[in-house]
Amino acid sequence: MGTKDDEYDYLFKVVLIGDSGVGKSNLLSRFTRNEFNLESKSTIGVEFATRSIQVDGKTIKAQIWDTAGQERYRAITSAYYRGAVGALLVYDIAKHLTYENVERWLKELRDHADNNIVIMLVGNKSDLRHLRAVPTDEAKAFAEKNNLSFIETSALDSTNVETAFQNILTEIYRIVSQKQIRQGSGEQDDLKTDNTKPIHIAPTEDDTRKKSTCCANL
Ligand code: GDP
Ligand code: MG
Q1: CATH no., domain 8-183
Q2: 156 lines ligand 1 (CB under 6 A)
Q3: Alpha-carbon torsion (178, 62, 102, 192), positive or negative
Q4: Closest ligand 1 atom to the C-alpha of 153?
Q5: pLDDT tens, 174-184?
Q6: Do 28 and 16 contact (CB within 8 A), yes or no?
Q7: Position 43 confidence tier, pLDDT thresholds 50, 70, 90
Q8: What is this structure's pTM?
């Protein structure tokens, strides 16, 4: 089953991070299955879900990892971040504390993720207009200062969920394909800092038939 799903040009691992309750699991289910769940239940079972999109005529398979609620105990292991080329750092626009904690999550990324990981700051629950606690402009300015892309989403009414994933995957794709061009022409790799190692994304079980696993070596 699903042989078509196994055909892709690039496989990118993207992690979801941010405080518990901000809507990470619902962003994932909205993007990969077009589902939303009103109950707040901690994620069980699923480590990641996948969905493929097209960018520049290439098939990009996104492997999006969700926590199983470990963020509550600040116990996300470095295995979670291993091989990730993108991160959606999610806060809740109606809960200021989840925005304040973004700094802590950025530090977590600096400590555990690849230096070149592409980070998008995501203000979720934009449907809760009447409860807004984080002004859009403030978050946007913070993102700019920290070199992050920024978007507000609602997993509930679907606003910008597609766009958020499309944008981060396109951004990763541009970096990876630019890098391939540079490598092809024998130029120096100026994106890489001294101590970064290439990111190799291991094939997952359902990917075993795919001829090449990608190359997300940012
Ligand atoms: P996680 O802990 O970050 O994975 O958050 P969940 O996805 O489990 O969501 C926590 C709670 O917020 C659940 O009750 C969801 O129904 C609710 N929720 C998630 N996304 C949204 C959203 O965009 N708008 C609103 N109003 N509620 C949301
Ligand atoms: Mg969750």
Answers
A1: 3.40.50.300
A2: yes
A3: negative
A4: 23
A5: 999 988 888 87
A6: yes
A7: low
A8: 0.84
